[in-house]
Amino acid sequence: MRIQLLSLSLCSLLSLSLAGCVGSRPRDVNSSDFRGTTQLHIAAEAGDLDMVRLLVSKGANVNASSWSGTPLGRAAWRGHVDVVRFLAEKGADLNSIGNTRPAIHWAAYFGYTDLARTLLDLGADPNLVHRGLTPIQHAERRKHLPVARIIRDYIEKGPVAVRPQPPTPSSAPAPVSPPAEAHASPALPDVDKPSYKLAARPDDYALVVGVEGYAKLPAASFAEKDADAVKNHLSAMGIPPRNIIHLKGQAATRGALQGYIEEWLPKNVKPESTVFFYYSGHGAPDPKTGEAYLVPWDGDPMFLQSTAYPLKQLYSSIGKLTAREVILALDSCFSGAGGRSVLPEGARPLVIKTDTGIAPEGNVTLFTAASGDEITSTLAEASHGVFTYYFLRGLSGEAKDSSGNVTAEGLYRYLRPSVQDEAHRQNREQTPGLFSARKGAPLLKF
Q1: Which CATH architecture best describes the domain 2-14+188-445?
Q2: Which phi-psi region, left, alpha or beta, contains residue 229 (left: φ > 0; alpha: ψ -120 to 50)?
Q3: Beta strand 2-11 pairing with 325-333
Q4: In this structure, are residues 355 and 283 in contact, taking their beta carbons and an 8 Å threshold?
Q5: What are 64-112's pLDDT values in tens digits?
Q6: Taking the domains of the chain in order of start, what are their residue ranges?
Q7: pTM of whole model > 0.70?
Q8: Which residue of 46, 302, 328, 438 has the fewest CB atoms within a 10 Å radius of its CB?
């Protein structure tokens, strides 16, 4: 049997400590976790204006600095214009750089036109240099030309040029602007709809799991969209729709996960089959033992043994299949510091390596989305996890060699720098890993 683990991305655990739960009532409104993240950072990033107002009224520091910037910076990152405006009115520094990009650079980076106008109108510096680039240069580099034009007009003509002026009865009709589509910036390549179609693989099977909205936990952003895209690629690879089980949202319970892994697959898989398993969602470690778990829709980090699915059990069950090879892809993490991971409320993120129970050998190929002490990132422009996005781009042909093969080694050479570069843009570290004795074996052939 060949067990090819094509992506273990169980990242770090999204901390549900008192300082990280937006809905809780902390004794100290400015209490923070070990990275400096306060409740105001969390509420601002979530775009929860009512909670932001409440926290500020209770004395929350609008300029609190964390590893991910200020509250205003986190709101700007997500494009929450109303939160940015409120925080600025309460004294937040519009031009703070801190540990990440200034707000005007987030507008340039993501192409947020309304945010750019608002920030400039409130007094953001249009010439603020970050990492050697002005906002205009940053927008042009990312091909967000409408934002570059807004900032350039502001510099040349002043704020009046970017403020909408109400028409008067005596005024001449304003010139009609071209449709927004005419100025739309080029989008990132789409990975949701594969451009290839390979020969049918009637004996192959797949189990795809995506959990974004949880019964009792914060969302794992874009997890279900990741799983949807993976399912589309598996279909394009030739696996019949009837052979693909897609557990999504509330259907992805612990019972369903265990049933399809331990009962459905063994009953259907043949010796000539290739089996694909993909999971996108939260991971969790046992705070006492460090053992790693997949967290299904109904999972509770307080009761991992009875509500979550152990990685060791996954590998043991998959390893018993009478298949020619098995490919696992897991987009999540275990560090306990954020990303697609969770901890029991009040628990501290782990400072030791999580026990994932993985010992690749023989025909095992393992891709990891991040190292054990890192967290995974998301790519808001593409609405995907960074790892899954570039993983699928690589599988789509961008990682193929001169013979038209996508091998594990070739995919990793493409994947690692792409993920690292995007993580660096977000001022964080994320390093995919590859462990395999069959690095040159083809995964796909075009």
Answers
A1: 3-Layer(aba) Sandwich (3.40)
A2: alpha
A3: parallel
A4: no
A5: 888 778 999 989 988 888 999 999 999 999 988 765 788 999 898 888 8
A6: 2-14+188-445, 29-164
A7: no
A8: 302
